[in-house]
Amino acid sequence: MHRMLVAILFALACATAAEAAEVKILTAGAMKAVVLELVPQFEKETGHKAVVDNDTAGGLAKRIDAGEAFDVAVITPGVINDLATKKKVMTDGRANIARVGVGVVVKDGTALPDISSVDAFKRALLAAKSIAYIDPASGGSSGIYLSGLFDKLGIAAEIRPKAKLKQGGYVAELIANGEAELGLLQISEILPVKGVKLVGPLPAEIQNYTTYAAAVGADAKQPDAARALIRLLTGPAAESVLKARGMERPPL
For 2-99+211-244, which CATH superfamily applies? Predict the structure, then answer.
């Protein structure tokens, strides 16, 4: 009888372990905080464990194109469309989740520069001793946009010598630790960092929004769980999380 009970308990334990699996989530930097905040609810609802890996949009595109396995990717629609043509992601289950603009950040406690107009923003950039932003070469959406913006504003030559480029992660950390005076990056990557202050978004005339979408991996081991995460990200539970991170739903 005792042996039978042990065998039954062992079988139940094995069945539970088999049902609970790891779900690999690849997310671009701007969406990292949103995904991490929703992970506990996802794990509770699905019974699976989420494993979150973060990189720039360009970095994720290269990794997925090279064959990295994953269940769901949260990345830009353009990258998803490109990967879909290469059969790296499933065409079903794709959905736009949110969009976010670029903001200006300084160290907490310092004077806030005037960025109320394009001219004021330009003067603030020229006055700053150092400026931090994502390295365009790393594939970061905001870094690529800003590089072009500096050219358009005619100040690229002045910005280049004082640029503090970050390959990935939170650029605002360079502001918090004093490595740079002024930071330019997506607002959702500013708000989670302690010791910094969001000055505000770029002036409307030069603002750039990046939209993020989600897609299931073509070779996902847990496709149903991946779709469950996408439903969570596009559902009402994510609304307050997105708003708190300075993000909004993309226009239809």
Answer: Periplasmic binding protein-like II (3.40.190.10)
Alpha helices in the chain (DSSP H): 2-19, 32-46, 57-65, 77-85, 118-127, 141-153, 156-159, 172-176, 223-234, 239-244
Helix (H, G, I), strand (E, B) or coil at 158: helix
Closest Cα to residue 20, out of 38, 51, 52, 46? Answer: 46
In the structure encoding, which two tokens stand for residue 39, read together? 């992970």
Summarised one tens digit per residue, pLDDT across range 111-135 is 999 999 999 999 999 999 999 999 9
Quick check: 64 pLDDT over 90? yes
DSSP 193: -
Q: 102-206, what's its fold?
A: D-Maltodextrin-Binding Protein; domain 2 (3.40.190)
